[in-house]
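pinned: reference chain
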Amino acid sequence: MLAIDAAAYRSPWRRHHPAAKALLAGGLLGCALVLPPWPGAVVTALVALAVALCWARVPARTLLRAARTPLGFALTGSLTFLVTVGADGIGWADGGPRRAGDVVARCGAAVLCQLLFAGTTPLADTLPRLVRLGVPATLVEVAALIYRMLFVVLDTTRRIRDAQAGRLGARSLRATWRSLGGLGSAVFVRSFDRARRLEIGLAGRGYTGALTVAVEPIPLRTPFLLAAPLPAVLAVTATLVLERLL
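pinned: its structure tokens
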């Protein structure tokens, strides 16, 4: 199980309805996308971080580990705004640092808002309820199967890497590249085989196009539902105040 999933199952918000948590995180996500990058996105990121660490009590280390990969993509992608390619060759782009900063600020705020929801709501609580909202059941089932296969792939990768390490598969650069090639091919073959076996298993159990899943009832508590929009309201208010002061 991924650390962010483990945090979601242990979250003190576990017993709150996913709709209320979606309202809270979705409101902040809307602020990250609509408000100006400065100071709106920065304020939204700080509010989302404070809510995640202090109110939802998502472990800081788990939040950091989950955020580093998407933030790394945002940082590397924003570097393209710094340069321009023209008839005179490659040069520095006018206003490039500002555009790069805007992209990083918006992406950082949006990532924190999504991790706030992911760190407090297990996917098993969310997917079955999407059908009630009108999302096609087939799409939900495909998402659930991909989610399940993700853990199969991660477990297979870990086992193969452990076996390669035990055989000194990384003792040199050449051996490391050879191990990586073997790892990729083995993971593909084993994942394909597990998917085929899963399909056979579902067919053997009379799969007719719909998986019946028991959804645990979670009450929609009014106090938490009323408090859910407050972080977004705080982000908007703080942004308007800072815009007047700066």
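why pinned: Residues 159 and 165 are 10 Å apart (CA to CA). The longest strand covers residues 83-86.
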